[in-house]
From TrEMBL:
It comes from Marinobacterium maritimum. Residues 2-95 form the 2Fe-2S ferredoxin-type domain. Its cofactor is [2Fe-2S] cluster. It comes from the Bacteria. The lineage of its organism: Bacteria, Pseudomonadati, Pseudomonadota, Gammaproteobacteria, Oceanospirillales. This is Benzoate 1,2-dioxygenase electron transfer component BenC. PROSITE patterns: 2FE2S_FER_1, 2FE2S_FER_2, FAD_FR. Residues 103-205 form the FAD-binding FR-type domain. Pfam families: FAD_binding_6, Fer2, NAD_binding_1.
Length: 337
């Protein structure tokens, strides 16, 4: 048995003891700590942490969850990490998040479906159980596809609407995708959806310095919830969002972003389109529109949500510029059928 020190980002340290061949995630769960976790089999990357010291075994994960470069830097997936000595592990979440009540199923009614473009739709659900989820802006839930035993992960694109206890989601329309097919052709207002969560360590921290948000496609969703929270609380620091898509048709929710820009004194945004055939004034990738002032010589909190190639491109950009941000939180996703 080995002792593992879990250092949370709010300065709190908790100790857990692993049993023989037990993963750090399982030991933490057994001790009443819910390290951000989802798939439990090395596929999603939700439980990614950093091992500061100690020896461990770690097998059975995929590259999308943890790259070879990250593994060389001793980043770990706690759902696969089996200690071979005492270890110190840094958890990219606050201790408060990790002692919240366990995830539970929430049954909600579908109240709205809106096809925003050929590639994107939004839907809203309502339930008096939603408040019990205690989610933070940026986190996600697994939504079961009605009529199947399959679920899909979607970030909240809003905070809770107090008037009708509803929350919204922004999702990509995937050809022949289970959820896309249901939402686009079968769903009816009043249908029941089952949500489980919340999950993830990608959430808005207290705004203590300039913030740079980088969204790719429907990776815009968590930022909509974050901006809603910032609008409620205000910010004395500049917050800038760069929202990138592939084609003009993929640009959605621009009116809402304009509304946030009008309501939040320090918020600005840039939308860009990668396609060379685009008629949009801002062309290219997200990294083409990051300005030095937005990086603030590294004294900046960066939030990034997008597909794996975008995450890798931003990481390469930061290394090329020699920028080490004060904090860098990211969520990478791939659309699934």
């Amino acid at each position: 048995m080995y002792k593992v020190a879990l250092n949370f980002e709010d300065g709190v340290t908790r100790f857990v003891t692993t049993l023989p061949m037990e993963t750090v995630a399982d030991a933490a769960y057994r001790s009443g700590l819910n390290i951000p976790l989802d798939c439990r089999d090395g596929a999603c990357g939700t439980c990614k942490c950093h091992c500061e010291s100690g020896q461990y075994e770690m097998d059975g994960y995929i590259d999308d969850a943890l790259s070879d470069h990250e593994a060389e830097q001793q980043f770990v997936l706690t759902c696969c990490m089996i200690p071979e000595s005492d270890c110190v592990v840094t958890v990219p979440a606050s201790s408060e998040v990790c002692v919240r009540s366990q995830q539970a199923d929430v049954h909600a009614k579908l109240t709205d479906i809106n096809l925003l473009s050929d590639s994107t739709l939004s839907f809203t659900v309502a339930s008096d159980q939603v408040r019990a989820m205690h989610f933070l802006p940026g986190q996600y839930v697994n939504v079961q596809v009605p009529g199947t035993d399959q679920s899909r992960a979607y970030s909240f694109s809003s905070m809770i609407n107090e008037a009708d206890e509803s929350v919204s989601f922004l999702i990509r329309v995937v050809p022949e995708g289970l959820m896309s097919t249901f939402m686009a052709g079968k769903a009816q207002i009043g249908d029941e959806l089952v949500l489980r969560g919340p999950y993830g360590s990608f959430y808005l921290r207290d705004v203590k310095r300039p913030v740079l948000m980088l969204a790719g496609g429907t990776g815009l969703a968590p930022f909509m919830a974050m901006l809603e929270k910032i609008q409620q609380e205000g910010s004395e620091y500049p917050v800038h969002l760069i929202y990138g898509v592939t084609n003009d048709v993929d640009l959605v929710e621009l009116e809402k972003l304009d509304a946030f820009a009008a309501a939040i004194d320090n918020f600005t945004f840039t939308a860009c389109v990668a396609s060379e055939e685009s008629n949009w004034p801002h062309k290219g990738y997200v990294t083409h529109h990051i300005e030095p002032g937005q990086l603030n010589d590294g004294d900046v909190d960066i939030y990034l949500c997008g597909p794996p190639p975008m995450v890798e491109a931003v990481n390469a950009f930061m290394q090329e510029k020699g920028i080490q941000p004060t904090s860098f939180h990211y969520e990478k996703f791939a659309a699934s059928k």
